[in-house]
Amino acid sequence: MITTKDTHQGMMGKKFDNTFDGMLFMMNGNNHSFWMKNCIIPLDIIYISNNKVSKIHHDCKPCNSEPCERYPGNGDSILEVLGGTCKKYDIKEGDRVYFD
User: Fold this and answer.
1) Which residues pair with 79 in a beta bridge?
2) What tens-digit pLDDT sequence spans the chain (100 residues)?
3) Which residues are within 8 A (CB) of 56 and not within 5 positions of it... i.e. 6 or more apart?
């Protein structure tokens, strides 16, 4: 079971290999703010609301000490992927998202 602490930890300190695709957060409510504290790679943060991309923060850089930049947005799910993924695949705000 995922706890609130797990959600707050997110990608902090996680190590990745070539099998990393991303991390999907299924959220309650719509207003959220993510940060990059203790992450080791840049990430794109994609806010999704009602199966539509509502906000993208591109290439969010890791932060090792506070204050860390916050990346706010509205969404019922948030997808974190490798930095640059959205530009590489032309993912933009307004795109539809489908989950299998």
Assistant:
1) 24, 46
2) 455 555 555 555 556 566 667 889 998 877 999 999 888 889 999 999 999 999 999 999 999 988 999 999 999 999 999 999 999 999 999 999 998 8
3) 44, 45, 46, 47, 86, 91, 92, 93
Task: Say if CB 29 and CB 78 are below 8 A apart.
Answer: no
Measured between alpha carbons, how far is 87 from 32 in angstroms, rounded to an integer? 23
Tokens of 2: 């995922």
Domains and CATH numbers, the chain: 4-14+21-88 (2.60.120.1140)
Q: Supply the pTM of this predicted model.
A: 0.82
Q: What is the DSSP letter of 4?
A: H
The C-alpha atoms of residue 23 and residue 26 are separated, in whole angstroms, by: 10
